[in-house]
Amino acid sequence: MTATETDHTGVQHDPAPQDGGLHADAVRTLTGWQPAEPAQEQLRLDYLRHLAEQPEGMYRACLPAHITASAAVVDPAAGRVLLTLHPKVGRWLQMGGHCEAGDRDLAAAALREATEESGIPDLALLTRDGVPVPVKLDRHQVRCTGKDRPENTHLDVQYIAVAPPGAQALISEESLDLRWFDYDRLPELTDHSVRDLVARARELTG
């Protein structure tokens, strides 16, 4: 298989791996996760339907929708969250992005993205009974194949990553800016989804 593949629109993509391990883990994770809110439950069922219909639905080559993984990086001791100013979206967001072939599971994908984009090496995902668990799902439209291409859908699975007290962040090439914000002083350029994720992180980490 070549390093890139071209679809019928002429857009080049990295080929989706054929390994079913990450796909199977996503099915297990979403099957076992039971949200309290009806809207989140509907999203969970929609994500599972997507995975049932798309064997390669974990990867960006799968259009018009694919699973992504993200994490809110928080420092509970200081009551703050780390957000990145995304160059394509133009808003402050949590860390996150596309799954990759080397990710052993969905939680590992979220942790990898959080570590790469925050520059903090000792992050720990919030767990239940010793197992990392999502805290929220969010479906949103993006143009990850290019700003001149049609929108596609990210089916984002969101976690919480706890940073060591006083952690120092290091900006990556994927960000226009990277800053810590007090829970009560989030920037204006955030959307409802980010604010809801931060609120959940604050509640769950004390």
UniProtKB/TrEMBL annotation:
Cofactor requirements of the protein: Mg(2+)
The keyword Membrane belongs to this UniProt entry's keyword annotation: no
Biased composition, class Basic and acidic residues, residue ranges: 1-11
Domain of life, per lineage: Bacteria
Residue ranges of the TM segments: none
Domain Nudix hydrolase residues, every copy: 64-203
CDD domains on file: NUDIX_Hydrolase
Alphabetic keyword roster: Hydrolase
InterPro entries: NUDIX_hydrolase-like_dom_sf, NUDIX_hydrolase_dom
Stretches for region Disordered: 1-23
GO MF annotation, one: hydrolase activity
Classification via PANTHER family: ADP-RIBOSE PYROPHOSPHATASE YJHB-RELATED, GDP-MANNOSE MANNOSYL HYDROLASE
Protein name: NUDIX hydrolase
Species per Swiss-Prot/TrEMBL record: Kitasatospora misakiensis
Lineage: Bacteria, Bacillati, Actinomycetota, Actinomycetes, Kitasatosporales
